[in-house]
Amino acid sequence: MAILVLVAVSARVPLDAEEQTGVSDEVRATLRASQQAAVEWLVEQLVPNDAVPNPHPTRRNLIVSYRIPPDDPVYPYLYGRSFVYDGAVAAIALTMSGRHHDAQRVLFALARQVREDGSVWFGLNTQNAWPTEADSDGAVVRSGASAWVGYAATFYLRARLAADPDFEADGHAARRIRSLAVVIADHLLGLQVSDSADRRHGLVTGGSGTYSYSVDDSGEVVAAFDRSPVGWSSTEHNIDAFFLFRDLAALTGDDRYSRAADLVRTGLLALWSEADGQLYQGVKVDGRVDTVLPLDTASWGSLFLGSAGERMLSDRAIESAKSRFRLGDVNHYRPYADEPVYESAAVSNVVFGDPQTRWNDIDIAWIEGSQGVASALVQAGLHREAADTMLAALDYEVDGGFRYASIEVPELFSSFPSVASTAWFVIATELLFDDFDRGLFWGAR
């Protein structure tokens, strides 16, 4: 089927002058050089590579999510793991950087992972075929990660069609990538709550599979897996779904997706907390609002709100991000603020020696999350603050890649160099300095 509709975007005119952004030429040069090194680092993470020289044939060209020293205890468990969200943001970063062939390699690899129902496993081994339909114990599906894969495909096509007159909209590659976006979007349409009496109305539900953590009789932290469907609706997942539906509607002209985007928009706006100045975390399956306040519903929430025409709320959300999650006077951000690190007090006691440890009690810089803040700062027109946040990320740069977080929090946050942080650094830098990509990506247009 031909691609029908394109949304007009601005011509590719980089913001070079300091007076346009308030960012000095020296800072621009530093960020651009780091961005280029980050792109090369991302490409080196595609398998086959040094870590996985002989990937399973179905997993070839997926991107390994972390770069882990071989002598680290977790190496055997994570060295070849590819999280599909990471592949999606990497594909977007590569597209923005003009590495279209590499982005296409990742997208084709992701397309091979789509299940019969249109969902995508959250994490995949590259050294073997786990998970499969016959062997999926411990594997989860998350609607937000699936939405990112669909959005990456949509972004790639819109970018190529808007900028490259020689790109074949009806060629084999375009059809294959378009099908990836459509099959995922159609799956998410099936997860959208249609009951108007339900507090989750208009929102998509979470996917399937949940881990919970407890302490056994020997004092060890143990994980329990429940493969049941996830009935709660996450704000973050629905922000992801909103942009997929909205931009796929623009790409295809299919009003099913525009209607779905409108429903998600309404559902998300109902989760605005006036008292807290940001969106709540989501809605539980029983209809109770989940009043936890994560960084991403402030930063990504600001991007969504700006795109949804709620400029004042968008500005309040980015200010909330700065006041609630920022680490003192430095331009790093923690993932949560006044919330327990672990739901289980016993687990918290094993890890921290304190059953009541909250995120405000530990100095953790979440580099991926900080680059989400930088992107929201760009949209808000706070370019110098965005640049400062990107420069701060260089504290955690390792050979071109960026650590996921500054410290390890068992089962939650890793300090290894990661695709997610590295790709978001590329994206944030591109949003700051390039009108074309800023006009095309998420809420920044």
Write a brief caption for the model:
Helix content is 46%, strand content 10%. The protein has 445 residues and is mainly alpha-helical. The protein has a single domain, classed as Glycosyltransferase (Alpha/alpha barrel).
Task: Describe the protein.
The protein has one domain (23-210, 225-444): Glycosyltransferase. It is built from 16 helices and 13 strands. It has helices spanning 18-21, 25-44, 75-78, 84-96, 100-111, 143-163, 172-190, 235-252, 255-269, 296-307, 311-325, 345-352, 367-379, 383-393, 419-433, 435-440; strands spanning 81-83, 123-125, 141-142, 207-215, 221-230, 233-234, 272-273, 278-279, 282-283, 289-290, 397-398, 401-403, 417-418. The strands form five sheets. Strands 3-4-5 form a three-stranded antiparallel beta sheet. A hairpin with a 2-residue loop joins strand 11 (397-398) and strand 12 (401-403). It is globular.
